[in-house]
Every structure is written in C-alpha cells, then in structure tokens.
Design brief:
The protein is mainly alpha-helical. Helices cover about 60% and strands about 5% of the residues. It has 21 helices and 4 strands. It is elongated.
Length: about 400
C-alpha cells in the first residue's frame, strides 16, 4: 500500500469512527492548552494571536463542544498544541452528539456499500430486494453475511484481503467476482473441516471417482463426502451473474477447499471442473497456499498451469486414444453406451469429450448436440445444497453443508 493510500485509510470516516469509540478520553486538549501556556509563559490572548484565531473559534474545539469544526482551525490548533491531527479529529468526533455520530455512521455505511457491492446486479440475482432503499439494502447484506453491522463486515474484509489479495489482484471494479469469491471463503471458514488433509489419501481416492459419475442423483455427493473425510471441502454455488467462473481452489486453514458453479449448467462440465480443481490441489497447492486461492481461467502471476489441469480432467474420464476410437462412431448410441460402461463413466462424458475436442482442436461447435444424453444437473447438485443467492445466508448454508459432509461416507 502506498503512502497516499495509507494516509487516506488512516483518515477514512470508518477508521476515525472506530478510533473515536476506543479513545474518547485519550487526550484532553484543554489541559494540553493550559500546559502550553505555562510552557511558553504567555496569556490566552497571546496564544490566540499566535494561533491566528479568536477565543470563540478555539474554546469550542478545546472543549469538544464545537458542532461544525472548520478543518483549517483544527489544523492550526493541532500544530500549536503538538497534537497529531488525527487524535484531535477523533476527540472532536467522540464528543459530538449521538444523533450526529449516527448520521456519520450511516453515511459511511452507504459509501462502503456503494464502493464494494454491485447493487444493480445483486438486485437482479435476488440477494437484495431494493436498489434505492439504503436501509433495506444494508439489512439484506448483513443478513446474508451474518454480521450485525457494516463495520463488522468491513473489519472482516480487511482480514480477508490480506489473505486472498495482493495489491494487484484485488480489483474493486470486478465487484461480483469479489463477492462470489469472498462468500465461498466465508463458507469454508465457517465449515472448518476438522479432518486432516492427506495428499496420499487424495491420490488413492481420485482413481475411484469415475464410477460415481453414473449415479446422477447421489454420485457427486458421495465423492464430496469422501473428499471431506480426507480434508478436502467442496461447496457449490449457483452462478452469480458476471462472475463467470466454473471453479476455484482455496487454501483455508491450510486445507484445500473447492468451489464449483453451475456455469453452462452441464453435467459433464461439473465433473470436469471437479477433476480440474483436484489437479490444482494435488500439484499446485503450495502456490495456492501462498496466494490464498486460484480462480480457474483467471490470469495467474504464479503461472499455475490451466492447460495441464484441463488435460488431466479430460484424460481422467476419457483419454485421447478412446476418443480417436469412438469419434467416427459418435452418432452410434449403442457403441457410445458400451464404451462408457466399459470405462465406468456416465455416457454423457464421452459426448462431452467429443465436444471439447471439436471445439478446441477443430474449431467446431457441438455444445448443443447430444443434449438428450446429458442429465439435468438439478438432481445432481441439490444434494450438495448449493448456495442460492436469493434465499440463503452464509451462516445457515455453512451449517447445512457441514451436516451433509459429516455423514462421512467413504468411497471403497
């Protein structure tokens, strides 16, 4: 953080209000003024002349009774008394009438909300009920996060930014992505997976995942419960408008956490995203530990290899040799079903592999083809209790997900 940014933060309304609540009786400008008179051996009138102000301007500041302090007058008195400007301002705020402090707090809350949240898009997502009623917006956000005040949320985000964001990575213009990432982190932190993360156990577990793709209703849930038991937590988010990411891997309490979304609403894509993120857990977790999280598809200064993760996920379900074999017969449902069964995967993953191959290597779009073979993802993800922005809160959602995973179902 640069010197100017530090200065702006130090004199922000939020910081000054916090200091005023903590340090109401730290200084007494009147006593310091009297001491200064004795030190210089001068009268009050001589002091007023030195400061360049009359007694009607100085006395209300010294007593903290001034209602509308003039900044230049406060600066002059701060300089004369050798009191840091911030301390004098904090003293004056602390001695304002409660209704004025309340108005200042309210103004600060709404400035913070405007700066950090995309009100229009959150309204469209159903998370806030109004775009114009500031009190209702504030209450909707506090209810969602489980905080009692905007100050409590602001304090939390300061901590979160230190964990997740460098000065180059935190982008205030991308408010929806920040909101989505922060919400995921908060849920993982509240879930607080108690199980020890064991990389060797993860390596043993991954090869056993494939058959569970055939169970549309419970397969993904069973896999996520097994991952939880070895210290890897997975949660699901409904895609938040404009945040546009399939998945992300976090380090929370030094344990891997994966968030998946229903971007593209595709059964094959969800399983592919899970294996993509598990690759990052296996091979990139030390880098992720150093930066807090990795968002799939986001440019990364640490050069975490997205191509390798994609190839790992694709080869895991249906490798290039199998794809070459089935490609000429892709419209033969019987052959596709047989090869899928032989490889212990849901047959839509064969079609998904073909779609990926045609799009990225042949520049042909088959994303809308074979739709009849792709299960509805709602049956798959509902058992994971995905975060639904318009009706959920983070404390409630974390509690539900923890209860789901604590069933401790193990893949054998």
């Amino acid at each position: 953080m640069g010197k100017f940014s530090q200065l702006m933060n130090e004199f922000s309304i939020s910081n000054l209000l916090k200091e005023s609540f903590k340090k109401k009786d730290t200084i007494n400008p009147r006593d310091i003024f009297e001491e200064k008179l004795a030190e210089l051996n001068i009268s009050e009138n001589q002091a007023f002349n030195l400061i360049g102000l009359d007694k009607n301007s100085v006395n209300p500041i010294l007593d903290g009774s001034i209602k509308h302090p003039n900044l230049f007058n406060v600066l002059k008195l701060s300089d004369f008394l050798d009191i840091p400007l911030k301390e004098l301002i904090v003293f004056l705020i602390a001695n304002q009438q409660s209704d004025k402090i309340k108005k200042l707090e309210t103004s600060n809350d709404y400035q913070f909300i405007e700066r950090n949240f995309d009100i229009d898009r959150l309204n469209r997502a159903g998370l806030i009920n109004s775009k114009s009623d500031s009190s209702e917006i504030k209450q909707n956000l506090l209810d969602f996060f489980g905080f009692k005040s905007i100050q409590e949320y602001e304090d939390y985000t300061l901590k979160l930014d230190m964990i997740l964001y460098s000065s180059t990575k935190r982008n205030f213009a991308d408010k929806m992505r920040y909101f989505s990432v922060s919400s995921a982190y908060m849920i993982f932190e509240r879930i607080a997976n108690p199980n020890y993360y064991d990389r060797d156990s993860l390596k043993e577990l991954i090869p056993k995942i494939k058959p569970y793709t055939q169970d549309v209703e419970k397969g993904l849930l069973t896999v996520c419960q097994a991952l939880y038991s070895i210290g890897v937590t997975v949660c699901f988010q409904k895609q938040l408008t404009t945040s546009q990411f399939r998945g992300a891997t976090f380090a929370v309490n030094r344990k891997p956490c994966i968030v998946l979304t229903d971007l593209n609403k595709n059964f094959g894509s969800i399983w592919h995203a899970l294996l993509h993120e598990l690759y990052h857990v296996l091979f990139d977790f030390e880098s992720i530990l150093s930066q807090g999280y990795h968002l799939t598809g986001e440019p990364d200064l640490l050069l975490i290899n997205e191509k390798n993760a994609d190839e790992f996920a694709q080869d895991f379900f249906f490798d290039s040799n199998l794809l070459r074999f089935i490609k000429p017969h892709i419209n033969n449902d019987l052959m596709v079903s047989q090869i899928a069964k032989k490889n212990n995967i849901h047959k839509c993953l064969v079609y998904f592999a073909f779609q990926i191959e045609m799009y990225f290597n042949q520049n042909k779009n088959y994303w809308k083809a074979f739709g009849q073979y792709f299960p509805d993802i709602d049956e798959t993800i509902k058992r994971l209790s995905p975060l639904v922005w318009e009706k959920d809160s983070i404390p409630q959602k974390a509690k539900i997900i923890k209860e789901i995973f604590e069933l401790n179902k193990i893949i054998e």
